[in-house]
Amino acid sequence: MASNKAHHATGWAAGIIAAALVSAAHGPASEGAGMIPAVLALLAGVAGATAPDWLEVAWWTRARRLWITHRTLTHWGLGWAALLALSWHELGRHPAAPVAFGFACGGLMHLLADWPNPLGVPWVGPRHSLNLWTSGHCDLIVVGAAWVAALFVVDDVWFHHACSRMLLNVLRPAA
Ligand SMILES: [Zn+2]
Predict the structure, then answer these.
(1) DSSP of 115-131
(2) Which of 106, 103, 89 is nearest to 49 (CA)?
(3) Which of 5, 53, 117, 150 has the least C-beta neighbours within 10 A?
(4) CA angle at 84 for the pair 24 and 145, rounded to the nearest 5°
(5) How far apart are CA 167 and CA 37, in angstroms?
(6) β-bridge partners, 121
(7) Cα distances (angstroms) measured from residue 72 to each of 45, 145, 166
(8) Position 136 pLDDT exceeds 80
(9) How far is the CA of 161 from the centre of ligand 1 (A)?
(10) 53-83 tens-digit pLDDT
(11) Rg of the Cα trace of the chain?
């Protein structure tokens, strides 16, 4: 796995992405009340980002052994993607949908963070690895990429591209 610290740091980014998308799905009409599902999605995203690893530990026993093989079912991309799609569809209809959606965002973020490691991630069938670096290395790249993604989503949903427009203005050479 990517280091636990990296999973936590990317988890907050996943939570913020989930919160922004949930608030967008709930629409501007519910701006005040829409805060609650967004906050739930944020917290669920943080929990979900470490979930693939703690779900495979039998934490209810004293030995805390793994009850399934590391990086198998709990790291199954298709399962997390299905949860994401289903909960997205249920947003605004089912009260638990924001939590499920945030949890799925976190889970997928976890898989993305694990993907570059040699062990790889079983997205659909057998494990696939990007083979970029070994576990714990290059956490900064993983965390940085997650936060750039979060900024893009937040800029789009909450600031309506105000940030990217400002950035373009700064980068544009003076006429
Ligand atoms: Zn993992």
Answers:
(1) TTSTT-B-SSSS-B---
(2) 106
(3) 5
(4) 75
(5) 30
(6) 128
(7) 21, 25, 44
(8) no
(9) 33
(10) 988 888 777 877 888 888 888 999 999 999 9
(11) 18
